[in-house]
Design brief:
Length: about 425
């Protein structure tokens, strides 16, 4: 009983067995928080852009992409888990919502851009809690230079300037080697070139991080900003890295990056003209909510979507200020326990999307409390605890009960469960 078409951003698309984009998600697509004047995500975007003044700044690409652009052109293996309908949102089998801004890399290089930033909303199916939301924002950045002495000279000069700047700052960087046996140079590259590009990538990002955090989150000589680089693995870069920032006693991952895998650039010349020849470089993708939560002290990721003037009126475009929390309204916990039909399984992400469609941003968090399979009937039983809490007002118990009853009846209709 699936409708034949689904309307997304004003266009009707045919649906099929892959369609799983939900009304809640569809309602987020037009909002583009990163372009809303004075919104913290928009300020963060513009601060990042002003740190790279000579780069092209893009922020209006459509979130609807092909799996081919989101995965295949970036050398994702055919069986990568990110492709599953439980992890990503599909309009139908041929179109999906981008899961990362890297989905546009090949296209932007194909247009001939050599230094660029791209900020956009990205979509991933996920659990529900204070730091996960199925829509978030990323800024992708990339730089490529010619793979010859001219290109390398440009990088070396830039490295010298950046290094001098960073040495004067209250930042402590835990580094990893530019190249290692577990994070190797690509066959197509000269290790000397790759070393210089890796170094330029690290210096450019350390300088960005210092520009954004330095002086704001207590970067003093006694209490310097701590940043740590770790080896990572992405199908379209090698060597690859992740960066974490130490904040309130925890290491927080804020970005992924690496030296662009040559087939990624080759794909640009294969599918777009004039293409990218004899160039190499780096790319990074950075999560804006994570950074903004730190910089503005925003405690819950749902707040970015709030229309409440007590939230929105606190911010001015271009300025980072500390969020003043208004009172938290009481939580309202409701449990639901049910038996699944025989041989059926229910993915947490399917349950969470169902709850979001009923409760919207009034759901703060969903926890699985219990799950077991009956030894005789081999039916599975699951119990979830939902925390209903509005950010804008006090919920009455009756209101929570109404939402919870709707969650239960949809569970029964859509998944044929038996409530316990
Ligand atoms: N797209 C990656 C992510 O979402 C980040 C990334 C971008 C990694 C560019 C390498 C290069 O995690």
């Amino acid at each position: 009983t699936r409708p034949p078409t689904v309307n997304v951003l004003g266009t009707d698309y045919p649906t099929d067995h892959m369609t799983n984009i939900s009304p809640t998600i569809i309602s987020k697509l037009p909002l583009k928080l990163h372009t809303q004047p004075s919104h913290p995500l928009s300020t963060l975007r513009s601060l990042i852009e002003s740190h790279f003044p000579t780069y092209a700044h893009l922020s209006s690409l459509s979130p609807i992409v092909t799996p081919y652009h989101n995965f295949d052109l970036l050398s994702f293996p055919a069986d990568h888990p990110g492709r599953a309908v439980t992890d990503s949102y599909y309009v139908n089998k041929d179109l999906m919502l981008r899961t990362h801004t890297s989905a546009h890399e090949v296209e932007v290089f194909g247009r001939g851009e050599t230094r660029w930033l791209l900020t956009a909303d990205v979509y991933r199916r996920d659990e529900i809690d204070g730091s996960h939301y199925p829509v978030f924002h990323q800024t992708e950045g990339a730089r490529i230079v010619s793979a010859d002495t001219d290109g390398m000279k440009e990088i070396e000069d830039d490295n010298a300037t950046l290094e001098a700047h960073l040495q004067r700052s209250n930042i402590v960087i835990e580094d990893v080697p530019h190249l290692s046996p577990t994070n190797p140079c690509q066959p197509a590259h000269d290790p000397k070139h790759t070393g210089l590009i890796s170094k330029n990538l690290k210096l450019s990002l350390n300088s960005l991080i210092l520009g954004l955090f330095g002086g704001r989150v207590g970067a003093t000589p006694e209490n310097p900003l701590r940043v740590r680089w770790i080896e990572a693995n992405f199908p379209w870069t090698t060597p690859s890295f992740e960066v974490e920032v130490f904040f309130r006693g925890k290491w927080l991952e804020i970005l992924g990056c690496g030296v662009i895998y040559q087939p990624t650039l080759d794909n640009a010349s294969k599918y777009f003209s004039p293409g990218v020849k004899n160039k190499l470089g780096w790319a990074f993708g950075l999560g804006l909510e994570r950074m903004a939560m730190i910089l503005y002290s925003i405690p819950d990721i749902r707040l970015f979507w709030s229309q409440d003037p007590r939230f929105l009126s606190q911010f001015k475009q271009g300025e980072i200020t500390t969020f003043k929390p208004y009172s938290k309204y009481p939580a309202c916990f409701k449990d639901v326990s049910f038996w699944l039909p025989e041989n059926m399984n229910l993915h947490d992400n399917d349950f969470c999307d169902l709850v979001r469609d009923v409760a919207g941003d009034t759901v703060e968090d969903v926890k699985m409390m219990d799950s077991f399979t009956h030894p005789k009937t081999s039916r599975k039983s699951i119990c979830y605890r939902i925390n209903y809490r509005s950010m804008d007002r006090s919920l009455t118990n009756d209101e929570a009960n109404i939402m919870h009853a709707l969650v239960i009846s949809r569970l029964e209709d859509q998944f044929r469960v038996e409530i316990r």
